Backbone:
């Protein structure tokens, strides 16, 4: 295996534990906690795999684009607005999941019907219905979240100067991050399946707060 | 036990910390100079200013021994965010005259909104037996 690909893989592995769990852990945790009661442990684990597969797909695609363009700065500049929008979407998703977990689903449905129906309704449907595979498109989307460590991978992909080597570099990095996020998601799913009553609702409130934080970051309120 | 821990902590700090720029020196305002060894001074300039994340930046390093350029080093810069693993972001610097090195690099944007970074200049003597010299310049990106 080439040295640069080993570097990408090990950076993903180390960064997965030291960076991704802290930055993206709340998202996979929220997904796992909200899905665990409906899906059960086995399908919940499949959901985690599907989410990560979606994320890996997006990273690989972006790596190929960066490598093809041969410039991180140009592509990242075009992506910045989209990434902020994804951060807002991720935050709103977490708020919707948190509202449901906190037991105020009726209020969430009213919001869904009125204010943010165009966004929240499909998101809520995605979370309520279907099997584990529904997490794949979510992973595709949330793979676009602004992230310093994945930017490192895209910087490396751009430096390869080709679509295929760029894709491989980002793919190795993305695969390296999977174990840590799978572990975080599985731990949260286990917790979600065991939490009952007030504790489960408290988890929902935490999801709402974290969702608000993600949305605020996407809107440029970085002091939060 | 407590004194052992203090000694261990002191040893870790002494070994791992490169020399840091005084708080008064701001790379956003202009070049900064730091000692990198007993008799070597390093000056780092980052341009264009203001220094922004996700932008192509030029890093220029000058090394001096007293009034003269200090030669005999290969130079590179490691960009790190304190307390947050952001991958090994190294900027390769090419020789650009006596005691002068220059290269291009990019500071990535952190999703959390943090903007504090450290540019650690690493000078590797041509004598492989000699240890590298280091100087760490903290800075804050404009966005």
Residues:
């Amino acid at each position: 295996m080439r040295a640069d690909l080993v570097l990408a893989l090990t950076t993903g592995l180390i960064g997965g534990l030291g960076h991704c769990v802290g930055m993206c852990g709340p998202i996979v945790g929220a997904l796992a906690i909200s899905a665990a009661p409906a899906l059960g442990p086995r399908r919940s684990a499949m959901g985690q795999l599907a989410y990560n597969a979606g994320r890996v797909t997006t990273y690989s695609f972006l790596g190929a684009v960066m490598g093809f363009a041969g410039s991180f700065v140009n592509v990242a500049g075009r992506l910045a607005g989209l990434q902020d929008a994804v951060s807002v979407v991720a935050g709103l998703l977490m708020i919707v999941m948190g509202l449901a977990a906190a037991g105020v689903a009726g209020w969430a449905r009213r919001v869904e019907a009125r204010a943010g129906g165009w966004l929240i309704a499909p998101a809520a449907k995605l979370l309520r219905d279907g099997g584990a595979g529904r997490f794949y498109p979510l992973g595709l989307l949330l793979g676009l979240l602004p992230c310093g460590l994945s930017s490192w991978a895209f910087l490396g992909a751009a430096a390869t100067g080709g679509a295929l080597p760029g894709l491989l570099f980002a793919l190795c990095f993305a695969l390296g991050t999977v174990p840590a996020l799978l572990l975080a998601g599985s731990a949260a799913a286990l917790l979600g399946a065991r939490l009952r009553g007030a504790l489960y609702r408290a988890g929902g409130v935490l999801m709402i707060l974290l969702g608000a934080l993600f949305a605020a970051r996407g809107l440029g309120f970085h002091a939060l | 036990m407590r004194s052992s821990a203090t000694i261990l902590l002191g040893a870790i700090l002494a070994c791992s910390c490169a020399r840091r720029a005084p708080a008064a020196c701001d790379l956003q305002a202009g070049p900064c100079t730091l000692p990198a060894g007993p008799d070597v001074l390093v000056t780092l300039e980052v341009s264009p200013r203001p220094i922004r994340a996700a932008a192509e930046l030029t890093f220029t390093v000058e090394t001096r021994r007293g009034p003269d350029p200090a030669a005999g080093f290969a130079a590179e810069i490691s960009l790190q965010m304190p307390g947050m693993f952001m991958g090994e972001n190294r900027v390769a610097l090419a020789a650009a005259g006596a005691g002068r090195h220059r290269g291009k690099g990019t500071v990535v944007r952190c999703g959390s909104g943090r903007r504090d970074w450290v540019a650690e200049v690493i000078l590797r003597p041509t004598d492989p037996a000699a240890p590298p010299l280091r100087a760490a310049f903290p800075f804050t990106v404009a966005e």
About this structure: The longest helix of chain B spans residues 2-16. DSSP finds one helix and eleven strands in chain B. Chain B touches chain A through 18 residues (CB under 8 Å). Residues 43 and 85 of chain B are 26 Å apart (CA to CA).
